[in-house]
Amino acid sequence: MEVYQSFALFVEKDGDDIELGIRHLHSLNIVHNDISPYNIMLDETDHPVIIDFDSWQQNGQELGTKKGSRGWSIEEEEYARFENDIYSLSKIREFLHAP
Fold this sequence. Notes:
single chain, mainly alpha, Transferase(Phosphotransferase), domain 1, two-stranded antiparallel sheet, globular, Kinase-like_dom_sf, EC 2.7.11.1, protein serine/threonine kinase activity
């Protein structure tokens, strides 16, 4: 629970930075495909950094066997799409603002 509390604090402060990181990846035609609290760390200045790129693909490519984390990504998705990352970000925001 402590990890999620720390995560919640920095997302409240810098949540838009995560979205900016995702938008940058998308501008390079890259879909991360596994955006989740487990794949966001803080750097030495407490800014969020997206990590763990073992599921990335170019937009439109087949995902194969490497897909996003259960509960944080679109179930049964077969292709890398920008919407995958946007959906995952919305799940993170939903989780952090749940009562």
